[in-house]
Structure formats: structure tokens, C-alpha cells
């Protein structure tokens, strides 16, 4: 496979992951940096993929600690691992948070029909200490926000007994690396 074909294959695999709940790339780890400069990593669901704009979307609660972190430090990394492909993909990206607008409205129309709506209507912010009384009162307004990650670099690693392979895709620069 040449590098251009590899880049296309990676994007089609990401598109498949967005559509297929069972795809191992559906739940990457999102790493950010907190206000003390410490790493923070957590699993998220890949919601939307656009190869034209080189963006990946994740839904979150606008009150969650990660949103504050991303507003201060927008540089993130998403790490995907697929046991079936034997591929790891480390995606460096610039994150942008949207709390309102047509994209958030469309996302909410979809999420509100699923059990996940409760997460975004909770009167408690993620990470709040549990308060039973408050917990009983659902909020009328949702707190869904979209994290749009614009890809700046991809580091692809393929594990194989025949020999590992590694490549970097950074804008129009594609190159093979030593694994
Ligand atoms: C499989 C899985 C998928 C998850 N997907 C999301 C998600 O799409 N968005 C999200 O905000 N949190 C998601 N979470 C919860 C986060 O991992 C995390 O616990 C939560 O968002 C709080 O993170 P924070 O305190 O760094 O903001 C998911 C957790 C798991 C285990």
C-alpha cells in the first residue's frame, strides 16, 4: 500500500467507526492537558467524521471538566486501537467547542430520542458530588456540546509478525517512520 492509499484507508476506517457501534475505533481515548499542565485522558464516542474538512466530532456535557480544559488548551490527542486491524492511530488535533447553533440543535434532536438524553439533562455537572435532592429534579435545558477536532497530524502504527509499519500524515506531508 502506498502512503496516499493508506491515508484514504484510515479515513474510510474512521467513517466506518462513526457508523458502526461495534467498530473498535468507535471509542477512542481523548487526551487533553488540564490547567496544571497534567495529562487527562478518557474514553469518548466518535460521533461524526468528515474527511473533507479533516474533522472528528465528539459529544459531551458543556459543564464537564474537559470542556474547560479544551477552552484553555485546545491541543488534544485521540488514540484509537483496533485489535482486528492491529492498528493504532494517534490523532493530534485542535479542538473547538460548540454549545449552540444548528449542529448542536441537530445533535440534540438525535440524542434526545436515546437514553443518553438523561446525561445531558442532569441538574448535576459531570464530576459534581452527588446530591440526592438535586439529582431528583431533571433540568429542562440540555447541556450537550460538540467537540470538533480538526486533525493536524496522524501517527499510524500497524503491528504484524511480518514486521511492524508506521507512518505519519501531517497535512500534505506523508512519510514512513521506523516503528
Ligand atoms: C465507552 C465510553 C464512552 C464514553 N463516551 C463519552 C463521550 O462521548 N463523551 C463524554 O463526554 N464522555 C464520555 N464518556 C465518559 C468519559 O470517559 C469521562 O468519564 C467523562 O466525560 C468525564 O470526563 P472529564 O471529567 O475529563 O470531563 C465515555 C466513557 C466510556 C467508558
TrEMBL record:
It comes from the Bacteria. Residues 12-97 form the Pyridoxamine 5'-phosphate oxidase Alr4036 family FMN-binding domain. This is Pyridoxamine 5'-phosphate oxidase family protein. It comes from Zhongshania aquimaris. The lineage of its organism: Bacteria, Pseudomonadati, Pseudomonadota, Gammaproteobacteria, Cellvibrionales.
